[in-house]
Write a structure and sequence with these properties.
single chain; 151 residues; alpha+beta
Length: 151
């Protein structure tokens, strides 16, 4: 009987701390991390002129020029909102497309690129990527960068 107890103790000792070291503990990913990945992946798609609404881009450009005027979303995450759970994420993107492109094709390419990048880098399942096209960039439009009135 003593021998069987001894072997039970050995079994419990070898199990302690066992398993793949990569699975010990939790990894949490901030919303902002997913937003940055998605923002960069969306900008890589041909036909995407900018991210965010015209107003958010104008305010961001002014804020970027004011010393200490941060506080808003950085250029990389502008136009991107992520909700991150333990194993899944959902994204909302607001884009401006170039005139003449197929919006459906651009939106499909953005979804594919964003999903591939986010899933590859984070391991999260992307359950949806909602895309709102807020504007179209016409060939003769000047870029919206406002001139700074601050000296």
């Amino acid at each position: 009987m003593a021998d069987s107890t001894h072997s039970d103790q050995q079994t419990s000792v070898t199990k302690r701390g066992g398993g793949d070291p990569a699975t010990r503990g939790r990894t949490t990913i901030a919303d902002g991390v997913v937003e940055k990945i998605a923002g960069l992946a969306a900008r890589d798609v041909v036909g995407v002129h900018a991210m965010g609404s015209g107003l958010s881009r104008t305010l961001g450009a002014v804020r970027d020029r004011v010393p200490g005027g941060g506080g808003g979303k950085s250029g990389v995450t502008r136009g991107v909102k992520a909700e991150v759970g333990e194993v899944q994420t959902a994204l909302d993107l607001e884009i401006v497309v170039d005139y003449g492109v197929s919006i459906a094709d651009v939106a499909g390419a953005v979804r594919e690129n964003v999903i591939a990048a986010v899933e590859r880098m984070t391991g999260l399942e992307v359950v949806e990527v909602n895309i709102a096209v807020s504007d179209v960039k016409l060939p003769d439009d000047e870029d919206e960068e406002p001139e700074s009135r601050l000296q």
